[in-house]
Amino acid sequence: MLQIVREKSFYKSLGKIAFPLAMQNLISVGIAMTDTVMLGRLGETAISASSLANQLFFIFTFVLFGLSGGTIVLCAQYWGKGDKYTISKVMGITLRISVSAGFLFSLVGLIFSKQFMTLYTKDPDVIAAGVSYLHFVAPSYVLSSISVIYLAVMRSMENVKISLCTSSVSFAFNVGLNAVLIFGLFGAPAMGVAGAACATLIARIVEFTIVIIYSTFINKRFHFYPQHLFTWDKELFESYLRYSGPVILNETLWGAGISVQAAILGNLGKYSSAAANIVSVVQRLTTVLIFGACDSATVLLGKKIGSGDEDGAKKEANTFVFLSGGLGIISAALVFFIGNAAVSAGVFEMTSLTEGYVRIMLYGASVFVFFQSISAMNIVGIMRSGGDTRAAMLIDVGTLWIISLPVGLTIGYVFHLPPPVVYLCMSCDEIIKVFICLWRFRKDKWLHNVTRTG
């Protein structure tokens, strides 16, 4: 018989973490949607340019997701153990890596922007606009490499309010400055795509400033020791590589794979690229609660395992799997109805060809999101919280690179089928992942206590 948690305290704790994280995700999607809607007024070239140029930050984001996800795996269990000092040392390890990656990606955006854009499109207008976008936004990557990691550590300690606050202020700046700089309001120059990038840069500067002020003057719950940026702890570093390494590799390879998907669609034409971007925004908008619940599962299960209550962790994991199915059904309905309603209302400025592509893609996205909900809960929420990060990586990345991408390349460039068919076929890996994840979950192979006893 499936054991489900019935205590109100569990759902109260879940709500305190999941809803603020869902709101933060919603704000993040809102920023992307605002860019898409505003730039959409300038046509498909502007949408495609910003979307494809953002693939650099998209890849970097998944490097940060991997670093923050791996950090949460360790920090949540050390939080359950009550060891804040080791949490600071884990954060120091992560910051050394994330800041180095931030500088590397910034250099690519500043120096090799044209070469990067040609990987995704051959349209000279799209390339030119994308290069302009990257030159403005690339310096912000270093700032994000610090603020994202700090906020991830806060989440691992059940402090989600600062993340929500930071995202809210950043969103307000981004939206306001987008309108001013894209269209040239209040006497400002009409910068178009470059204006959206400039607004993003300023918003990330504001976000970074809030994090520094909060860490230095406000946060009394946790103190980061700057010397831990340079501390060498061989045992902890080996533990970090063992449990966080696969998460970092997972997110990096997954982000790169999704970027390859964008390149496949982008090289089929700017209309297919614009359509995929619009569907992606709708899908992200309607799945914020799913990923809020996944992140909550990582924290709550990690804390439970770190405290030594493995039976309680198994019971909570059962509950999260059950909840993911319900959230998947809700999100599937939202993708379909909200997406089609937005298209019918003319929220996105597009040609009839792009609209046709979008509507077909929405049918597939509304089905695949149900399976995505269950697989994401197992991979991100359950397997990672239990330290089963290597298996999570193999499932998530393996199905993408071995199944999804080869299928997309074959369908699009060998059989030359329409872009919506390519998009739908590349999403088939979501179904396969569910069956593999559930098999591993039922075998209880996901649960490991990763904290040191010494």
Output the keywords.
454 residues; mainly alpha; 81% helix; globular
Textual characterization of the structure:
With 454 residues, the chain is mostly helical. The chain is 81% helix and 0% strand. The chain contains 18 helices and no strands. Helix 1 packs antiparallel against helix 12, helix 14 runs antiparallel to helix 15 and helix 16 runs antiparallel to helix 18. It is globular. The mean pLDDT is 87.
SSE pattern:
HHHHHHHHHHHHHHHHHH
For the sheet with most strands, the description reads:
none
Q: Over all CA atoms, what is the radius of gyration?
A: 21 Å
Shape: globular
Range of helix content: over 70%
So how many helices? 18
Mean pLDDT: 87
Going by helix content, strand content and strand pairing, the class is mainly alpha
Spans of at least 5 consecutive residues whose pLDDT stays below 50 are: none
Strand composition percent: under 5%
Distance between the termini: 37 Å
Number of strands: 0
Quick summary of this structure?
The protein has helices at 8-40, 44-53, 55-81, 84-111, 113-118, 124-137, 140-156, 161-183, 193-218, 234-243, 245-266, 270-286, 288-306, 310-344, 352-383, 389-414, 419-426, 429-442. The protein has 454 residues and is mainly α.
SSE diagram, text form:
Elements (H helix, E strand, L loop, with lengths): L7 H33 L3 H10 L1 H27 L2 H28 L1 H6 L5 H14 L2 H17 L4 H23 L9 H26 L15 H10 L1 H22 L3 H17 L1 H19 L3 H35 L7 H32 L5 H26 L4 H8 L2 H14 L12
